[in-house]
Amino acid sequence: MKKRMSPKAKVIEAAHCCVGCDTPVEVRGTRVKGKFGGYFLAEASANDVVLARSRDRDWRRAYKTLCIELMKQGDRR
Questions:
Q1: What is the pTM of this model?
Q2: Most buried by CB count within 10 Å: which residue of 2, 14, 22, 53?
């Protein structure tokens, strides 16, 4: 599953020191700032890509968790 990145998109790294896949997650909508579940997010605006490092080896679950948490913080998908 490849995602297209716009040329203006920055890659924001959600730092986590653990084993897992690096999964790019596209952030749409409002700016997101904060931390959750071991992820530390810098400010992210529309078209930015968050690089999620999951302690969970199943990246799909990590992606789902990230989407849910971003929605809670005001990112409407």
A1: 0.23
A2: 14
CA distances from 46 to 32, 38, 55 (A): 9, 22, 26
Write the burial class of residue 29 (CB in 10 Å: 0-12 exposed, 13-18 middle, 19+ buried): middle
**How is the chain split into domains, by residue range?**
11-72
* Percentages of the chain per state (helix, strand, coil), in multiples of 5: 20, 35, 45
pLDDT of 45 above 50: no
For β-strands 48-53 and 11-14, DSSP reports them as parallel
- Mean pLDDT score across all residues of the chain: 47
Phi and psi at residue 47, to the nearest 5°: 70, 5
Tokens of 47: 């078209």
